[in-house]
Amino acid sequence: MLSFSVVSEAVPFDPGLDAVFDWFRLSDPDGSRMARVFRETFDQLYDGQRTGRYRWDQLYKTEKTHYGTLIEINLQREFKFNDGLAMDYEIAGHEIDCKYSASGQWMLPPESIGHLILGSVANDANSVWSIGLVRATPEHRNVGKNRDLKGSLNALGKSRIKWLFKDAPMQPNILLQLSEEQVARIMAPKSGQARVNELLRTATNMRISRNIIATVAQQNDFMKRVRTNGGARSTLQLEGYLILGGDYSVQTDIARKLGCVVPEPGEIVSVRVTPVDSAVEGSVKLQGRYWHRFMGDTDVSIPAPTVVGQ
Q1: How confident is the model over 122-167, as pLDDT tens digits?
Q2: What is the CATH number of domain 174-293?
Q3: How many of the other CB atoms lie within 10 Å of CB of 51?
Q4: What are the beta bridge partners of residue 141?
């Protein structure tokens, strides 16, 4: 469970900021809604199903700049903010300017002075994001020398950010957690089915999202590449792999009993198993036999059992 964080630096009394802070606390107590927005915005920008991209450094400069615009749009879609008269949003009766920066260096135009800033930063490689509130005032702003007179938040302003969430987790991008050699092996086959098969052989005991599968398959019917009847579940079952889905309570229960990562709704987890003679810690009984996670490095395998929902 995430928690709201506040800065230790004394912040001047600001009832408007506190009202907006409390609005978010009621609207998204654990940060799960915001975490989903940040994850989906990265995926939207990568457009992996069409492009095969999955990393920030694969984007063009203009696309990176566009992330801030998408976050502004996607937050408004998720929370149904009213449009502001002078700024981007109106929340709890207060005008809000939405800012994003991959470096956390939010630029404040002169027209934002006096208004609240909803500023955010996110890092896909580390699967973290942060978002906070601060009042744009002359004392919080470096004076810009550029033509539009934008200025960055200065040290005092940064110290007075009231963080809603700081370095909070989001759904991981597992292609960034694998080595370059592993990703290259996954992406090497010409067939989308072969790439998905290799993904599930390689990324074991990891939460695999639908978007990752789409990025690897690069096909419209990407989830078909996971299913039985010719998909990865059929092929990899013969090699001793269980493909467990987060949309099935029976399968998430199997993951817990095996002691592996438990998939969330919309995710799958691939785990290789082997039979054991009796019940031991980390085992589960399926089709009349006990099974345990396979921890060896041999290619010899016994076909995995069939589970409900496959």
Answers
A1: 999 999 999 999 999 999 988 756 555 678 899 999 999 999 999 9
A2: 1.10.10.10
A3: 12
A4: 153
Q: Is 105 in a helix, a strand, or coil?
A: coil
Three-class DSSP category at 116: strand
State both tokens at 149.
């007179």
The residues spanned by each domain of the chain are 15-169, 174-293
Contact assessment for residue 205 and residue 269, using Cβ atoms and an 8 Å cutoff: yes
Reduced to 3 states (helix: H, G, I; strand: E, B; else coil), residue 169 is strand
* Least reliable range by pLDDT among 46-55, 112-121, 256-265, 296-305: 296-305
Three-state DSSP class for residue 271: strand
CA 305 vs CA 141, 180, 233, 243, 288: distances in Å: 62, 32, 11, 11, 10
Q: What is the band of 213 on the pLDDT scale with cuts at 50, 70, 90? A: very high
Q: Which segments of the chain does DSSP mark as H helices, in order?
A: 15-27, 32-46, 48-51, 61-79, 155-159, 180-187, 192-202, 210-217, 232-237, 249-258
The CATH number of 15-169, from 3.40.600.10, 3.40.1350.10, 3.40.50.40, 3.90.1180.10, is 3.40.600.10
Nearest of 107, 110, 101, 100 to residue 138 by alpha carbon: 110
CA-CA-CA-CA torsion sign (131, 136, 139, 143): positive
Which residues does residue 100 pair with via DSSP β-bridges, in sequence order?
Answer: 120
Burial class (CB in 10 A: 0-12, 13-18, 19+), 180: exposed
Can you give the pTM of this predicted structure? 0.89
- What rounded mean pLDDT belongs to the chain? 91
